[in-house]
Specification:
By secondary structure, the chain is an alpha+beta fold. It folds into two domains: 107 residues, 2-Layer Sandwich (Phosphorylase Kinase, domain 1), CATH 3.30.200.20; 122 residues, ATP-grasp fold, B domain (D-amino Acid Aminotransferase, Chain A, domain 1), CATH 3.30.470.20. The chain contains seven helices and 14 strands. Helix 1 packs parallel to helix 6. 36% of the residues are buried.
């Protein structure tokens, strides 16, 4: 099916195709795993199916609490129908516990709880290694205005509160996550909504009892069992029963 569609954009983990009606796109989840801005690559069978399903589940839950996002509905194992948005070129990272680059930058031991949740902005550009930016850069270069930044921060904290509770209830600690936002236009008025995906590719998720990593760090750090860990996240969220038997078989 995908070969007949017009490809709009291809990223490291997803492809966007022209949607069936104006203002829509089809988001296809690939099995490609990448780290360090694409320097490390692999194909992990079933990753796209798991991320599609987990992201659908979370976006649907967020819609339910009034967090507007681009998700419309899942179309197939690897595809979902989404609203077309004008992507704001920022990666928004919310951190609850020291890990990854934050630990490296400030010499914090990984696993140390932060005094409060910290939101960071990164400019979306792989060639530049997605540099961290301040609000001054964002407004000066007209990537977003001050009202949009306020809206993005408010929604990010709301998503953080919701996801922290969602994962905590199933024995998972939300260490940090990355989200993206886009504009939807209604006449001359632009509204900022949540876009992209929320999955173990874009979150650090640790088992609450053991601190075992259940996310993309398993791939980044050569820990193995990447698909098994993503499957465990889906299982705890109660969505494995909806998965095809091909994923369920042999991945316990």
């Amino acid at each position: 099916m995908t070969t007949r569609r017009k490809k709009i954009y291809e990223g490291k983990a997803k492809i966007l195709y022209e949607g069936p009606e104006p203002g829509t796109l089809i988001q296809y989840f690939k099995d490609d795993a990448t780290a360090f801005n694409g320097e490390k690559k692999a194909q992990l069978e079933g990753k796209g199916v798991l991320n599609n399903r987990i992201s659908e589940y979370i976006m649907t839950k967020l819609t339910g609490i009034g967090v507007q996002n681009h998700f419309i509905r899942r179309l197939s194992l690897r595809e979902q129908l989404i609203r077309e948005v004008e992507i704001i070129p920022l990666e928004v990272v919310c951190r609850n516990i020291a890990a990854g680059s934050l630990s490296n930058r400030f010499g914090l031991p990984e696993g140390q709880a932060l005094p409060r949740s910290i939101i960071e902005f990164y400019f979306k550009d792989d060639k530049l290694n997605d540099p961290m930016v301040a609000e001054e850069h964002i407004t000066a270069f007209n990537w977003a205005n001050t009202q949009e930044i306020d809206d993005i921060m408010a929604v990010t904290l709301r998503v953080n509160d919701f996801l922290t509770g969602l994962f905590s209830a199933v024995g998972i600690t939300l260490v940090d996550f990355k989200i993206e936002f886009g504009r939807v236009w209604e006449n001359d008025f632009a509204r900022v909504i949540l876009a992209d995906e929320i999955s173990p590719d874009s979150c650090r998720l640790w088992d609450s009892a053991t601190n075992e990593k259940l996310d993309k760090d398993r791939f980044r750090r050569d820990l193995g069992n990447v698909i098994e860990s993503y499957t465990e996240v889906a299982r705890r969220l109660g969505i494995m029963k909806d998965m095809p038997t091909v994923i369920q078989g042999g991945l316990h």
